[in-house]
Amino acid sequence: WSEQRGVMFSPRELRFAVAGRRGLALHGDGLNRGWGPRRLAQRVVSHGATSWLYRLIHPDLGLPMADVAAPLLGGPAATGERRRRHTAEQRRWAEVELERQSAVDLLVMGHTHEPALLRRADGREYVNPGAWAEGLRYAVATAEGTTLHAWAPDQPSGTTSAADLPRARRCLAARPCRPACARAWRRASPGTRSRR
Known about the structure:
Oligomer: single chain
Shape: globular
């Protein structure tokens, strides 16, 4: 990824700089969960040897395997009240983490798939951009702050603000395989679906 697209990757945490701000990116799963069968399974799946072996599997088999394993590793899909509870837990955890890590200006997390933005009085921020696969959502971090967006291929600018997320979500749900999305995916990711 880093050579082909300039995308940084780290299995646990990623420290980075953007617009003069010090950032920390975490997935957000397993926060304060202790040890148990799921936690152990997550450690096995995220081990380097497991990742190496998974690369040997063709995507036509590997992706369905990942779909089957996902509920076993993370529990049932969070919807409704459960998702809101997880989002609130993650936000509280992020507030504590920002207090604890004074060297972090921007804490980026995912996992809940719910967009969230917390701007502290000192200018430091926690952001969860949401999920690209659920509403084409992303965040933009600049020196002035972070904003939430959703990609809208039919808008002249190609983006829309967080206020338009419900429209983007309805659009994606109504037409998940829109030609504009498929064309953009092919342009943005040539060769990424080939076997590695």
